[in-house]
Write a structure and sequence with these properties.
Strand content: under 5%
CATH superfamily of the largest domain: Photosynthetic Reaction Center, subunit C, domain 2
Distance between the termini: 111 Å
Bound molecules: heme C
Number of helices: 6
Structural class: mainly alpha
Radius of gyration: 35 Å
Strand order of the largest sheet: 1-2
Helix content: 55-70%
Largest sheet: 2 strands, antiparallel
Number of domains: 2
Shape: elongated
CATH architecture of the largest domain: Orthogonal Bundle
Order of helices and strands: HHHEEHHH
């Protein structure tokens, strides 16, 4: 290959010129390669940085022990709203709220009602799986919510367990 290129130049340039040309090519070659290489490195770095800043999202929720860790924000929001409505409470009933700083620490487990709520989630899932088994339950490994927080709580933090007796029943 090299000799055929040399032969091509030989027709046009003197023997010395071709040799000089090739010598200079080999001297320049590493620095050309270095430049190309650093340009490539720059591009790769840029791509990696932009990919990292645009598509990498840190785990949104830090302390999920029952709900799936990759749950979407929308799904978690709707579950939390559902808990609140079912028990007739606000977020602060289960979560830590700093009144002075007006900040929330949703991941904290310092509020005992959050721990009760976790047990209640397990209990509710357990009742559904054990006593209301369906084909879908078995396939999806995800309990159908036949019994929900609302089934018992009906908008009360502590469910009313004693049936009301009406006047005409007496
Ligand atoms: C009845 C109790 C209860 C109520 C009311 C409640 N939550 Fe929660 N919340 C929980 C429990 C329990 C978890 C943890 C679930 C788990 O471990 O999988 C949680 C987890 C969360 C998380 C995830 C925190 C993390 O990083 O791990 C957020 C965010 C959150 N709740 C927001 C809210 C908001 C906003 C409200 C009000 C609309 C609310 N919650 C109302 C019980 C509650
Ligand atoms: C089978 C009925 C039942 C279901 C279903 C149920 N709970 Fe409960 N829950 C109770 C009872 C009964 C109490 C009151 C226990 C007591 O008196 O100590 C209670 C108490 C609680 C408390 C403590 C309230 C307080 O004031 O201390 C929280 C929090 C709670 N439940 C959350 C939930 C959540 C969240 C769900 C749904 C995932 C749920 N519960 C589903 C029956 C139920």
């Amino acid at each position: 290959m090299v000799s055929s290129i040399k032969a091509f130049f030989r027709g046009r340039l003197s023997h010395q010129d071709t040799d000089l040309y090739f010598i200079s090519l080999f001297i320049l070659y590493p620095s050309i390669m270095k430049k190309t290489f650093s340009v490539i490195i720059c591009f790769v770095t840029l791509i990696v940085i932009s990919a990292a800043t645009t598509s990498y999202k840190p785990p949104r929720f830090k302390n999920l022990k029952i709900l799936p860790k990759n749950i979407t924000e929308a799904a978690l929001d709707s579950i939390m709203n559902y808990f609140s409505i079912s028990l007739g409470v606000k977020c602060a009933f289960c979560h830590v709220h700093n009144e002075e700083k007006k900040t929330w620490d949703m991941a904290s487990d310092k509020n005992p009602d959050k721990l009760i709520a976790r047990k209640m989630m397990l209990m509710t899932n357990g009742i559904n799986l054990k006593y209301f088994p369906t084909e879908k339950n078995a396939k999806q490994q995800e309990p159908i919510q036949t019994i929900t927080c609302y089934t018992c709580h009906k908008g009360e933090a502590i469910p009313i367990s004693i049936a009301e007796t009406k006047e005409e029943d007496k």
